[in-house]
Amino acid sequence: MKARRTPAIDSETRLRDGHHVSLRLWLRLFACTSLIEARIRQKLQTAFNMTLPRFDLMAQLERCPDGLKMSELSLRLMVTGGNITGITDTLEREGLVERVDDPSDRRAWRVKLTKEGIQLFRKIAAEHERWLIELFAEIPHRKQANLTELLARLKHAVAGRGVSESAT
Question: If we measure between CA atoms, which residue out of 92, 98, 93 comes closest to residue 110?
Fold first, then answer.
């Protein structure tokens, strides 16, 4: 007797045959993102005792060697300043980031990776990339490129609508 697979319970579970393809697409994207994020969170925690928010903050800092203001980090990561402060405090205690004076604003400081932070981030980032390559391995490279292009078009179309238009 063949074992029956239980369907996954995720954002797509609520779909019915009559739902529009746009709703199906949105829920499929959301389900994929959620599954990938959960896998990456687990791997970061297991391999490096690292949370995804800490990794994301370090990734932003790695791209900006002169550091970023807390408000810039908050905007880039789309989280509150309080969350950024908590993550930064933890990374600073671990010697992975430092706060330095902002030369353009004496009242502010910038957060930047330390040498140790750069070394650790690069090690984690290489593994992160390898994990993503593994997760996408069943999709041929050409189809990954096509999907990337389609999603770029979707991103452009959605961004072009603006906030005020989407509120109507």
Answer: 98
Q: Find the helix packing angle between 52-62 and 21-48, rounded to 10°.
A: 90
Nearest Cα to Cα of residue 117 among 93, 99, 100, 97: 97
First to last CA, the chain: 54
Specify whether the backbone of 162 is left (phi greater than 0), alpha (psi in -120 to 50) or beta.
left
Tell me the β-bridge partners of 110: 69, 100
* Structure tokens given for 89: 């405090």
Choices 3.90.550.10, 1.10.1330.10, 3.50.50.60, 1.10.10.10: CATH for 23-149: 1.10.10.10
pLDDT digit string (tens) for the chain, length 168 residues: 555 555 556 565 665 677 678 888 888 899 999 999 999 999 999 999 999 999 999 999 999 999 999 999 999 998 888 889 999 999 999 999 999 988 888 888 899 999 999 999 999 999 999 999 999 999 999 999 999 999 999 999 998 876 655 454
Q: Which of 119, 59, 108, 126 is nearest to 87 (CA)?
A: 59
**Structural tokens at position 63:** 């791209």
Enter the pTM of the model: 0.81
